[in-house]
Amino acid sequence: MPTTGERTRSKRWILRWKGHARKWLLQIKRSNLQWRTAQERGTRKSFIHKGSFHEAVAPVLAVAQCFCLMPVLGIGGSSVRSLHFTRKSWRFWYSCLYLCSTTLDLMFSIRKVSHGGLDVRSVEPIVFHVSILIASWHFLHLANLWPGLMRHWAAVEKRLPRYGSYMERSHPVRRIRLVAFLLLSLSLMEHLLSIIAVVYYDFCPRRRDPVESYLRGTSLHLFEVFAYSNWLGWLGKLQNVLLTFGWSYMDIFLMIIGMGLSEMLARLNRSLKRHVRHPMPEEYWTWSRTLYRSIVELIREVDDAISGIMLISFGSNLYFICLQLLKSINTMPSSAHAVYFYFSLCFLLSRSSMVLLLVSTINDRAREPLQLLRLIPSEAYHQPEVTRFAAELASDQVALTGAKFFNVTRRLFLAMAGTVATYELVLIQFHEDKKSWTCSVETFD
Amino acid sequence: MKFLPKLERRLCRLKKKMSRSPLMRKLDLIHESARKKAFQDSCDAYKTQIEMEYVVRNQPTKPSRSNKEVFLSDGSFHQAVGRVLLIAEFFAMMPVKGVTGKHPSKLSFSWRNIRTCFCVAFIASSLVNFSLSLFKVLNNPISFNSIKPLIFRSSVLLVLLVSLNLARHWPQLMMYWHSVEQDLPQYKSQAGRVKMGHTISMVMLVGMMLSLAEHILSMVSAINYASYCNRTADPIQNYFIRTNDEIFFVTSYSTPLAIWGKFQNVYATFIWNYMDMFVMIVSIGLASKFRQLNDDLRNFKGMNMAPSYWSERRIQYRNICILCERMDNAISLITMVSFSNNLYFICVQLLRSLNTMPSVAHAVYFYFSLIFLIGRTLAVSLYSASVHDESRLTLRYLRCVPKESWCPEVKRFTEEVISDEVALTGLKFFHLTRKLVLSVAGTIVTYELVLIQFHEDNDLWDCDQSYYS
């Protein structure tokens, strides 16, 4: 006979398990319901764009999550309230794993580089790995800030003047998605071309297995330490793909943020443009000034969150442009190589200039209201609110920055071009035509 | 008739009393009683004090236990910087008395103080050392590389002189600093108050540890080198001949001279590191004062505040700006020396990184010192730029002032913040802002690219070569 104490203990145990089971059942039910609603035929309502940035950026973030960046939960939700970040999600651990494996990969490539001589060209893998490692660390940190940031963003968006028509509303969303997917497909194409170039021109005479020789070529730094094995080769390839994606994604993400912020300013400017020529009451000016101020506050907050990524992206673009331009002097061994090389050079140049131009649009749009305020008729101009707005506009420099070291404006474009030209001219003097496709000893044991 | 004048006086008083009104008389009485009472009280207080002293004196002397008050910091710069200056005094810089006192009024400078004498003596000895190395450099072919000891020693000498001059003004500066601090909005919590002192001591600790590690590594590599170059049988003598080659270029070897040279070397290395730390610490202090003001403004961001609040904040901001300018006038030469030194040494070290390293000890020392140098330069520039950043942050809060509380005082404050350039400077030639970091990096790369063209790999295993090259 069990004593009373034992009986109560077992009862309690059963009760606890019942509670767990009930919770579990509820969870299953909820997920079932979600699945069912997802399977429903979409009505017109589900296809109409709300015009919010959160909605526009969702697929881009989803793609990033496939490649271990930005582990935020609830990006697909209809409102920003569904966004949250937790350490207990598998996405977070997935990106942590990615960080660790990148660090390991970095160690191996440092080992490889330090065995050869140090040179502008030979540190390329180190620069590549380090910049991506720091950027992914920043993305992980950003994921933590993202829900709060998006909530702030949505609060500001709600105060903006409404869109006139459906077309106008869907335009920014479509634009953001177009740019993101165009660039993603271009970077995919670049990667495929690089594979083709290597496979097509595999001139090394003693090749055994085409797959093996390719995999060995992509992760040479690993097979200097370990003996060749197929699974390690595929792991190295996977890491390589993830890194290449992460490198392009930095720029894509910055472009999207730039477009989102400049769109907000553009909406305010459209409203101002409609009203400046007529004498408006003071309330209108108070409204527009506070709205402008809150957009600027949002820009500052976003800048605090992403300025590290900005610095990394601009720095690595500068380095890689210099490097690729230097390499363009080399003779190309085959037409596949030439196609790949020029494609990737053009892609790099256009991508970096696009980042700069799209991000500097924020600065341009933020300056525009000042020009519009000049059009106010004189009988309406002399109000304290208008003069205050004008004074604030004249003295503020609104732009995203690279870790506060430089402001991203259109002027930076020329400065960067000048820097590239200067370094290029100096580097050319030390340049020797180095054949990068010799069958080096380590390629075949 | 001795009692006559007394009687007369009493009579006089009585007459006066009688002539007054009854109300006055009453008041007089009250006054009198109050006076008596006060006198009694002060007598009692004095008695108790004497008794207390007696009791205290008769107590067996215990080691005084420090209470909580001793450890609580009031968040003043004077307290935070006390230990830093104490270390500097040990290394013959900043001979000010009373740096660890609670209140800045205890600070004093005098020429007859032992610290000042030590400092002056050390300046004289480094002058001798400087002229010795000048002699050696002039007797050899001059190049970008060979003037390195000269620049090192001359900058150390310059910093010593500037710091001696700074020590004379330090008490007034700290008093002014104290008066500005008293006026600022105070932190409610101890954590906010302690933060600056904590940062300062961490910076000092990490910097000192790293420079100590660097010095030890340099000794290891020099010993390694000396054992290779066996000039004499004695390894210690070998080592001293290598490290103090500017002394033994002139005279023959003697142990006291060698020890003097080593002492000079250690002190010079410390002072060379200390000037960067000092710029960092002063800028941390200034930036934290701006932050204290900004924290208060942030707490009231977007609220309707009275014009008096704004005028108070504006005056506080102005006071910090004046403080910043006074500090800048005092230390701008040190800043200039520190920045130009760092620029030169980074260029030299980067150029030397192209050489082949003769041994592992050399390679470890070399890369460690290069990374330390770059890290220190970056830290100095970022910390000193933070003064400018913090001073600009005020504008962000002023922009959010609501329409109702917008008044001429806020407008004036805003215009002042916009038009002022508040930052530490290098002898007013350049402002230390974050943009400077990029331009310095650009300058280094440009010079490096030019210098590389003239570079030849010189063999470091050449025993006739200078230790410093």
UniProtKB/TrEMBL annotation, chain A:
<feature type="transmembrane region" description="Helical">
    <location>
        <begin position="56"/>
        <end position="80"/>
    </location>
</feature>
<keyword id="KW-0675">Receptor</keyword>
<feature type="transmembrane region" description="Helical">
    <location>
        <begin position="176"/>
        <end position="201"/>
    </location>
</feature>
<dbReference type="GO" id="GO:0005886">
    <property type="term" value="C:plasma membrane"/>
</dbReference>
<keyword id="KW-1003">Cell membrane</keyword>
<feature type="transmembrane region" description="Helical">
    <location>
        <begin position="92"/>
        <end position="110"/>
    </location>
</feature>
<keyword id="KW-0807">Transducer</keyword>
<feature type="transmembrane region" description="Helical">
    <location>
        <begin position="246"/>
        <end position="266"/>
    </location>
</feature>
<protein>
    <recommendedName>
        <fullName>Gustatory receptor</fullName>
    </recommendedName>
</protein>
<dbReference type="InterPro" id="IPR009318">
    <property type="entry name" value="Gustatory_rcpt"/>
</dbReference>
<feature type="transmembrane region" description="Helical">
    <location>
        <begin position="122"/>
        <end position="140"/>
    </location>
</feature>
<feature type="transmembrane region" description="Helical">
    <location>
        <begin position="305"/>
        <end position="326"/>
    </location>
</feature>
<keyword id="KW-1133">Transmembrane helix</keyword>
<dbReference type="GO" id="GO:0007165">
    <property type="term" value="P:signal transduction"/>
</dbReference>
<feature type="transmembrane region" description="Helical">
    <location>
        <begin position="338"/>
        <end position="359"/>
    </location>
</feature>
<dbReference type="GO" id="GO:0007637">
    <property type="term" value="P:proboscis extension reflex"/>
</dbReference>
<dbReference type="GO" id="GO:0033041">
    <property type="term" value="F:sweet taste receptor activity"/>
</dbReference>
<dbReference type="GO" id="GO:0010353">
    <property type="term" value="P:response to trehalose"/>
</dbReference>
<comment type="function">
    <text>Plays a role in the sugar gustatory response.</text>
</comment>
<comment type="similarity">
    <text>Belongs to the insect chemoreceptor superfamily. Gustatory receptor (GR) family. Gr5a subfamily.</text>
</comment>
<keyword id="KW-0812">Transmembrane</keyword>
<dbReference type="Pfam" id="PF06151">
    <property type="entry name" value="Trehalose_recp"/>
</dbReference>
UniProtKB/TrEMBL annotation, chain B:
<comment type="function">
    <text>Plays a role in the sugar gustatory response.</text>
</comment>
<dbReference type="GO" id="GO:0033041">
    <property type="term" value="F:sweet taste receptor activity"/>
</dbReference>
<dbReference type="InterPro" id="IPR009318">
    <property type="entry name" value="Gustatory_rcpt"/>
</dbReference>
<comment type="similarity">
    <text>Belongs to the insect chemoreceptor superfamily. Gustatory receptor (GR) family. Gr5a subfamily.</text>
</comment>
<feature type="transmembrane region" description="Helical">
    <location>
        <begin position="203"/>
        <end position="226"/>
    </location>
</feature>
<feature type="transmembrane region" description="Helical">
    <location>
        <begin position="116"/>
        <end position="138"/>
    </location>
</feature>
<dbReference type="GO" id="GO:0170023">
    <property type="term" value="F:ionotropic sweet taste receptor activity"/>
</dbReference>
<keyword id="KW-0472">Membrane</keyword>
<feature type="transmembrane region" description="Helical">
    <location>
        <begin position="330"/>
        <end position="351"/>
    </location>
</feature>
<keyword id="KW-0812">Transmembrane</keyword>
<dbReference type="GO" id="GO:0005886">
    <property type="term" value="C:plasma membrane"/>
</dbReference>
<dbReference type="Pfam" id="PF06151">
    <property type="entry name" value="Trehalose_recp"/>
</dbReference>
<feature type="transmembrane region" description="Helical">
    <location>
        <begin position="363"/>
        <end position="383"/>
    </location>
</feature>
<feature type="transmembrane region" description="Helical">
    <location>
        <begin position="270"/>
        <end position="288"/>
    </location>
</feature>
<keyword id="KW-0807">Transducer</keyword>
<protein>
    <recommendedName>
        <fullName>Gustatory receptor</fullName>
    </recommendedName>
</protein>
<keyword id="KW-1133">Transmembrane helix</keyword>
<keyword id="KW-1003">Cell membrane</keyword>
<feature type="transmembrane region" description="Helical">
    <location>
        <begin position="150"/>
        <end position="167"/>
    </location>
</feature>
<dbReference type="GO" id="GO:0007165">
    <property type="term" value="P:signal transduction"/>
</dbReference>
<keyword id="KW-0675">Receptor</keyword>
